[in-house]
Amino acid sequence: MVDVVAPNSLDDLRIAVVGLGYVGLPLAVEFGRIRSVVGFDINQQRIDALRRGVDSTLETDGDELAAARHLRFSTDPADIEGCNLFIVTVPTPIDAHRRPDLTPLIKASETVGKVLKQGDIVVYESTVYPGATEEDCVPVLERWSGLTYNRDFFCGYSPERINPGDKEHRLPSIRKVTSGSTPEVAELVDRLYASIITAGTYKADTIRVAEAAKVIENTQRDLNIALINELAIIFNRMGIDTEAVLNAAGTKWNFLPFRPGLVGGHCIGVDPYYLTHKAEAIGYHPEIILAGRRLNDGMGAYVAEQLVKAMLKQRIQVNGSRVLVMGLTFKENCPDLRNTRVVDVVSELQEYGITVDIHDPWADADEARHEYGIDLVERPMAGGYDGIVLAVAHQTFANLGADGIRQWGRLGHILYDLKNVFPARKSDLRL
After folding, report:
1. Could you identify which of 6, 105, 142, 316 might form a hypothetical disulfide with 311, taking C-beta atoms 3.0 to 4.6 angstroms apart as the criterion?
2. Dist. CA 202–CA 206, nearest whole Å
3. Coil/strand/helix, residue 139
4. What is the CA radius of gyration of the chain?
């Protein structure tokens, strides 16, 4: 039998992007400027909105969608049958027990496997543990297609590096790691991404290397933040302002500028668990990574405890009090609610018998209710709160100023500036 040869010319590629969230849509838009692309997603409402030129993630705008004149959207798997290169960009979350949940990835692989043909290439961008592409996804592709890996079809892996809400570091300006299951496929995948990535590409030796590189990027950041969070806890007990310490230490050229805070989102708060899961599967128990995760996962309870202590010192009756939490998204100036750890602060405060109102002009009210059972307040009550937690550093909050925010507090209230948005003298409590 003669081995099947994958396409070797960019002109021969007909692309399908499977999954049109924060990662997939910007990718489909960039490719759609210069070549034919089918953007596929199972969410009909999402597809309908994109056809109207509306992106609820705010990662693209109407003009950018219109500029992708070779891009069409669909929820019908039949529309991707004519494609020969599939890029899978679906979420890879963790479950309630902090174990990797590959369900979206497996379902997407099934969808692709059903339309896979000889010579086709499947590239994964979803963050996974090393080995997941070839150990978990390829068998699904083989089973549903009846084809054989690296003989009839081929794979690649190019980890996403999207930073939601960041208007400076966008897809074309972030260097891209690429890889392929054969040297020829690796070269083609690299050239494909190089056609839209102005910052350049880096071709990894193997798919497993590329997978590992991605998962340690966020693990390293998670551990750095955990260190600063622990330092903040220590300095708070010593009565030392953490921000002042970090500013002083930051005068050294090689001091890394991390800040304490809640660690949520789809990447930093999730990806380390993919690596530790794989490590434990091969018989190694990771100490440092899990220690950092435990510390960061516990910051919501710590924040709530600090606020309650401050309220007690102010002789505020905690049980039955009312607190305003400003911000619900996992980071500033974006609508992304995935894995937000602000909910930890809210639930801990409620455990003390506190009524909590959450205000966030960036968050989608329906999504907040669906994902977390939280009803956002559109307008906080003037003079209605015993405590105010500035949990997310949205520019809209900064524009209000500390005095503008304090109008919502009762006499003697506590303002906890969790993100150090304002100078220390403007708040009662900082992390």
Report:
1. 316
2. 12
3. helix
4. 24
Closest CA to 23 of 98, 104, 140, 80: 104
Kindly report the backbone phi and psi dihedral angles of residue 123, in degrees, each rounded to the nearest multiple of 5, phi listed first: -110, 130
What was the pLDDT predicted at 166? 82
Phi, psi of 155 (to 5 degrees): -135, 160
Mean pLDDT by 10 residues, the chain (431 residues): 68 95 96 96 96 94 95 97 97 92 97 97 96 97 97 97 86 96 97 97 98 95 96 96 96 95 88 95 96 96 97 95 97 93 97 97 96 95 96 96 96 95 94 90
Task: Report which residue type is found at 139.
Answer: P
176-178 and 154-157 strand pairing: unpaired
Residues 179, 139, 107, 58, Cα dihedral to 10°: 0
- Taking CA atoms, 429 is separated from 181, 264, 304, 323, 423, in Å, by 53, 22, 12, 14, 11
Which of 162, 165, 206, 202 shows the shortest CA–CA distance to 182?
Answer: 206
> Could you tell me the CA-to-CA distances from 208 to 63, 132, 211, 212, 282 in Å, in that order?
37, 8, 5, 6, 15
Q: Is 323 left (phi over 0), alpha (psi -120 to 50) or beta?
A: beta
Rounded CA separation 319/356 (Å): 12
List the structure tokens of 335: 């609508």
Quickly list DSSP for 241-297: -HHHHHHHHTTSTT----------TTTTTTHHHHHHHHHHHTT---SHHHHHHHHHH
User: What is the DSSP-derived secondary structure letter of residue 133?
Assistant: I
Query: What angle (nearest 5°) sits at the alpha carbon of residue 163, between those of residues 424 and 98?
Result: 90
Catalytic residue list = 267
* Vertex 370: Cα angle to 365 and 372 (nearest 5): 90
What letter represents residue 417's amino acid? Answer: D
Q: What angle do CA 389, 371, 394 make, to 5 degrees?
A: 35
